[in-house]
Amino acid sequence: MMALFGFGKKKETAAPCSCGCTCGKAGGAAMPEKGILVLGSGCSSCHQLYENVKAAAEKLGCAGQVEYVTDMARVASYNVMRMPALVVRGVVVSSGKVLKAEEAEELLRRSMEGRG
Q1: Which of 17, 19, 23, 43 is catalytic?
Q2: 71-114: per-residue pLDDT in tens?
Q3: pLDDT tens per residue across span 60-79
Q4: Buried b (16+ CB within 10 A) or exposed e, 59-79
Q5: 31-113 adopts what CATH topology?
Q6: What is the 3-state secondary structure (H, E, C) of the chain?
Q7: What is the pLDDT of residue 51?
Q8: Burial tier of 44 (Cβ tally within 10 Å: 0-12, 13-18, 19+)
Q9: For the chain, which residues make up each domain, given as ranges?
Q10: Which of 19, 23, 46, 62 is catalytic?
């Protein structure tokens, strides 16, 4: 009877994946630490930030690392309350604002240098 309510059962815990989360997938659901994510819902503001971040990343030589994330479960994992948001190396560096390409470039440069 106790097992019916979850008592007496061992809780299953997922093994951490390579990115440090507990999704259990090799390679992880989240972007690697060196990745650049634009979190958004698919609206025009989110697309504009994505384009500006791609342009900034291209100038810095890391354009291939930019990913546009619209999966709300994945967006929620970053505890972002306002979109669009920019995540660099797993850290939210901007939220609720469409950055110009120059602003995004400066944020990326500082984040990549570790001054975030």
Answers
A1: 43
A2: 999 999 999 999 999 999 899 999 999 999 999 999 999 887 77
A3: 988 788 999 999 999 999 99
A4: eeeeeebbebbeeeeebeebe
A5: Glutaredoxin (3.40.30)
A6: CHHHHCCCCCCCCCCCCCCCCCCCCCCCCCCCCCCEEEECCCCHHHHHHHHHHHHHHHHHCCHHHEEEECCHHHHHCCCCCCCCEEEECCEEEEECCCCCHHHHHHHHHHHHHCCC
A7: 96
A8: exposed
A9: 31-113
A10: 46
List pLDDT tens digits, range 22-49. Answer: 444 443 344 345 689 999 999 999 999 9
Contacts of 54 (CB under 8 A, 6+ apart): 63, 66
pLDDT at 41: 92
Residue 86's beta-bridge partner residues? 38, 94
Clarify whether 43 is annotated catalytic: yes
**Do the Cβ atoms of 86 and 54 come closer than 8 Å?**
no
- Yes or no: say if 66 and 31 are a contact pair by the CB < 8 Å rule: no
Check if 21 is active-site: no
